[in-house]
Amino acid sequence: MRRINIFLVTFLLVTVWLAVQPATADSLPTVILAGQHFTVSIANTPDELERGLMYRQELGPDQGMLFVFPDSAPRHFWMKHTLIPLDILFFDSNARLVSFTYKAQPCRADPCPVYASNAPAKYVLEIPAGTAARDSIRLGEIMTIRL
To answer: Residue 1: its pLDDT value, please?
Structure first.
């Protein structure tokens, strides 16, 4: 009985310790594109898909947001309430880059421009403006997602 209690206490302590550990770069979702690794936030609920990177004041050079939609369809993005310039990359259901908007600027007044995909997209990756050019990201590139 004493051995079981020691096991249970140890198990509970380890479980609590693991739960309170801060996330590390290795444990965060990552996108690999053109040999570059981007730590990403995932937007896949209706609220997250609508909010995106609105109100974010900064985005590190190898950070981004990955939008995951339930289906492939033409996608339309705008920069209302977005404070930082972005590259917007549209990917099909096979994670192949099919369309992009480089250096989309924050919207300063209505009406805001709309940035649309040229083909149906299931995934959209937003990264800091200029990153796609810096990393020579081109149409047809395949994105790898590591959760």
So the answer is: 57
Ranges 5-9, 37-41, 115-119: which has the least confidence: 5-9
> Beta-carbon neighbour count of residue 30 at 10 Å?
17
HEC string for 9-43:
HHHHHHHHHHHHCCCCHHHCCEEEECCEEEEEEEE
Residues listed for the chain: 147
In whole angstroms, give the CA distance from residue 36 to residue 51. 26
| Positive/negative CA dihedral, 65, 77, 46, 120 | negative
Q: What domains are defined for the chain?
A: 24-146 (2.60.120.1140)
CB 140 within 8 A of CB 97: yes
